[in-house]
Model the fold of this input.
Amino acid sequence: MFRNSYDNDSITYSPTGRLFQVEYALEAIKQGSASVGLVSKTHAVLVALKRNAEELGSYQKKIIRIDNHLGIALAGLAPDARVLSNFMRQQAMSSKMIYNRPIPVSRVASEIGDKAQKNTQVYGKRPYGVGLLVAGYDETGPHLFEFLPSGTVLEYFGAAIGARSQSARTYLERSFESFADCSAEELVLHGLRALRDTLAQDKELTIQNTSIGVVGLDSPFKLYDNEEVGEWLEKLGDVGSSRGRRQAEEAAAEAAAASAAAEAADTDAPTTDAPAADDEAAADLPAEPIETDD
Amino acid sequence: MDHMPENWGRPRNDVYGEYQSAIHNAGQGPQSRTQTPSITGTSVIAMKFDNGVMLAADNLGSYGSLARFTDQERLIKVGNETVVGISGDASDQQYIELLLERLLIEDNYPQDGHHLRAPHIYEYLSRVMYNRRSKIDPLWNAILVAGKNDDGSPFLGYVDLLGVTYSSPSIATGYGAYLAIPLMRKIVSEEADAKNVSEEQARKVIDECMKVLFYRDARSLDKYTVATVTLDGEVKMDKNVRCQNMNWRFAEGIRGYGTQKQ
Done:
């Protein structure tokens, strides 16, 4: 009757040492549209692709300002992100009130990490279904952290989460070495180029579906939405995915990735992880196919 | 029949003995020893100079007018580049030292390159002091915090048992507010004046102030500590300094106190 008896709560290990509910939470991030973050020596930038539930509906907010020096971009369950962002705002205000100090980015990032970790160790809770990119500027410079429902918090030069974020990551990996000396403007354009690679084939970046957040040395967190995005898209020029145009190299890379994924899927079927199964490959990531299209 | 109504319903004295009215007449609330100071430290004085801030406080712990302890250290180094000077109740001072020690330990756990500096410690102390006065259980102290601002300029702030805060290039608590501030303001009156004062000049004025305070403040000692916070992030503690070149000859002429007959 049950396909998997080890995913009924988020704190019980499977015999192969996995927490399935936590892994499902990580899958929930991939259901959300993409968010991209990147840092230079002076600035941190967030860009995100907003989605509307239906043609006549409004777009879901993707970038949230936390404080003058701090903001987050989300992918996954937006209500969970609201809970986390409210908590981060409280922490930021406490730091201002008690110490007269803007909260250090690494501290607020690890605080939400601790919060998320509790959900994987205390009975009766559920992991957050959202991934966050935390970008901010403090005494030690600009920072970008990736937060995951598993409680993992890691710092990055560039990071992307959400649907088809692998394409953005590919762009970031190719060009991150030039980020350090970028101006704020160049950094945003790099972010937008990474973001447009996550678009579905016939989609493009518009002023409705694009959000941009910039923070840096002597410049408080600025959120660009709607009309304000227009000039950025003009600077970007081409607002469609560039994946098609780099077809030759993309095709080769994707074929390699696909065959690797297929191999992994063959050897590792996560939803049938029976207690008696002695599956060595189970330590890999779950390869459960997820529908990521809008 | 007893015609005095206040005696009705009471245990009979001839059976149970005299009623212990002392219990009835006791004051309100439990005994408290912390709502009024007992062992106290007198003034803390401080002034900015071109390359930092200099503080001084003597080493006396008074029990009323009795010079009870002569080795009290009232200037505390907090972190690497901040000094906190505390006047007032000694037990509350120890509690504040405990709070600051805990705060610093907590702040050092992440090892992320962030450190609490003078403005942060000042804000924290002002919150603690105002919070305690709001509970009508104040920490009976006046505190000076000295160190470096975020932009590297010298920082000096005052907070007291009421939660009152202010900043100035030269500040003194207690008696020093009357005796030392006029002397310090002769050379550092406005914020801009501090830039024209060298460490040596500042030290001369601080030593002079401590001498005047020892002459005039009956709860003071001629042994004191001078702390110097410099902008390159160094804290020097000059301990067991003595007042120099004092002249007490005028004391022979004083009449009306003590045992002299005329």
